Amino acid sequence: MQKLKGSAELELRIVLLGLDNAGKTTLLKCLASEDVNTITPTQGFNIKSVASHGMKLNVWDIGGQRKIRPFWKKYLENTDLLVYVIDSADKKRFEETGLELSELTDEENLAGVPILIFANKQDLGTASLASEIAEGLNLHTYRDRVWQIQACSAVTGEGVQVRDSRVTSITMVAKIIRTPVFSPAKN
């Protein structure tokens, strides 16, 4: 984290990951208050800066196709927050997404980095509850970092941002980062 020159604005590097079709780009467009009706699969990465509550959030949205995932680790250096998106309605891929998340948490460049997990597509009738996903991913075993799971629908904006105050889940986690209340145990 660093202060911008001549400004009190906090600048955060956020990496947005998850399997293909989880809704990462839709989530990013929702955060940036852009139209979410015309989304195409990300064939590499998108970068977008979003200003929110005195913070500049530089969000790297990296494609989730199987052939792109080995390159994820090249984007992790200096990450302040990992946002991981899960398609809550795609139960067949829960094991695969859990393995990918587990591998990410073992990456040296993400040691101690907070994780915000969006349990996306809650607007679909087949979506699993965020609490069920948290249990299935064994999130309670993550003791070396702050983590939060948030039910959401990137299409409707529900759970992504509170429209009246422009507070986003990412902003809430970023405020935790700015005033740490948790110190990872050093072994």
Automatic annotation (TrEMBL):
It is found in: Cytoplasm, Cytoskeleton, Microtubule organizing center, Centrosome; Golgi apparatus membrane. The keyword Nuclease does not apply. The keyword Nucleotide-binding applies. It comes from the Eukaryota. It is a peripheral membrane protein. GO terms for molecular function: GTP binding; GTPase activity; metal ion binding. GO terms for cellular component: centrosome; Golgi membrane. Its main location: cytoplasm. Mg(2+) binds at residues 25, 42. SUPFAM superfamilies: P-loop containing nucleoside triphosphate hydrolases. Keywords: Golgi apparatus, GTP-binding, Lipoprotein, Magnesium, Metal-binding, Myristate, Nucleotide-binding, Protein transport, Transport. One of its GO terms (biological process) is protein transport. GTP binds at residues 18-25, 64, 120-123. Belongs to the small GTPase superfamily. Arf family. This is ADP-ribosylation factor-like protein 3. It comes from Sinocyclocheilus grahami. The lineage of its organism: Eukaryota, Metazoa, Chordata, Craniata, Vertebrata.
